[in-house]
């Protein structure tokens, strides 16, 4: 891509091609750029998570994120089944700074609302705390490492749709 797209849309990833695009963005960002071992990037939760995808008008994948809910999220939310767990948020290098990450967070919150969840938790890389704070998330608890990268837990209350 020679220039960054100015328009994009987000959608729930349901088709195999959308899911493959989500996984490729994650591989490019987390494995390729951040050196997260590929064997820990993908997990059993991918099968039951809600995935969202941001795409350019030409169909190019720009970013992705996933939402865990129910039992799959309980280990990250202190066992609270009314809280979803947002994660694996990744935006391609070409699309950074265009609002794609914020649009993906809002799309995941919309999906959480459709599931009747009351709040969304996430584990933010510490360099991204300001990004999530601007979206209404509040950090709690101590800093901790995940895949060798410092993180903090954050939460935002949402209203079910």
TrEMBL record:
Q: What is its EC number?
A: 2.3.1.-
Q: What class of enzyme is it?
A: transferase
Acyltransferase: present as a keyword of the record? yes
Q: Name one Pfam family in it.
A: Acetyltransf_10
In terms of SUPFAM superfamilies, this protein maps to: Acyl-CoA N-acyltransferases (Nat)
Gene Ontology molecular function terms on file: acyltransferase activity
Q: Which residues form the N-acetyltransferase domain?
A: 9-159
Q: Does the keyword Acyltransferase apply?
A: yes
Key words, A-Z: Acyltransferase, Transferase
Tell me the InterPro entries matching this sequence.
Acyl_CoA_acyltransferase, Bact_Acetyltransf, GNAT_dom
- Write down the superkingdom of origin: Bacteria
**Entry protein name:** GNAT family N-acetyltransferase
């Amino acid at each position: 891509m020679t220039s960054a797209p100015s328009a994009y849309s987000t959608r729930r990833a349901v088709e195999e091609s959308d899911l493959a695009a989500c996984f490729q963005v994650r591989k490019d960002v987390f494995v390729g750029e951040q050196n997260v071992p590929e064997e820990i990037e993908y997990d059993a939760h991918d099968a039951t998570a809600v995935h969202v995808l941001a795409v350019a008008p030409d169909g190019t994948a720009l970013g992705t994120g996933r939402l865990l809910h129910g039992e799959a999220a309980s280990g990250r939310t202190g066992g609270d089944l009314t809280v979803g767990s947002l994660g694996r948020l990744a935006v391609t290098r070409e699309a950074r700074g265009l609002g794609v990450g914020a649009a993906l967070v809002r799309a995941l919150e919309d999906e959480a609302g459709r599931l009747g969840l009351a709040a969304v938790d996430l584990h933010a890389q510490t360099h991204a705390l300001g990004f999530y704070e601007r979206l209404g998330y509040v950090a709690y608890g101590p800093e901790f490492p995940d895949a060798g990268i410092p993180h903090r837990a954050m939460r935002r209350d949402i209203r079910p749709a």
